[in-house]
Amino acid sequence: MINTKPHENKQLSPLKRLIGYKITNKDMIIPRALFAANQETLATYSVKLELYYFTTLILKYLKNIKELISTEVCQLVAKRYNVPTFARFK
């Protein structure tokens, strides 16, 4: 279900708009929320994702997605959640 009041989202950042929508397609939301993450922004983005998804789900969808996520983002996520480093492309 998509937010039915789009006028409320006009002043929000793209990440807040994306997370504010109640879409059940996790394999689209999770990678796109972290797509442009770096060391400074990863904590902020991760906390917002964790409001809606368990850590195990975030890791599962990042490991199995078809989106072009950089190896750097995968390494930062692995470090944040204390799991073995994984790479989207080998």
Describe the 3D structure.
- This protein is mainly α and 90 residues long.
- It has helices spanning 14-20, 26-34, 42-50, 55-63, 71-80.
- The radius of gyration is 13 Å and the shape is globular.
- It starts with 13 loop residues before the first helix and ends in a 10-residue tail after the last helix.
Cα end-to-end separation: 36 Å
Write the element-wise H/E pattern from the N-terminal end onward: HHHHH
Beta-strand fraction estimate: under 5%
Q: Which spans have pLDDT < 50 for at least 5 consecutive residues?
A: none
Structural class: mainly alpha
Topology:
Blueprint: H1 14-20, H2 26-34, H3 42-50, H4 55-63, H5 71-80
In short:
The chain has 90 residues and is mainly α. Helices cover 49% and strands 0% of the residues.
What features would you highlight for this structure?
90 residues; mainly alpha; 49% helix
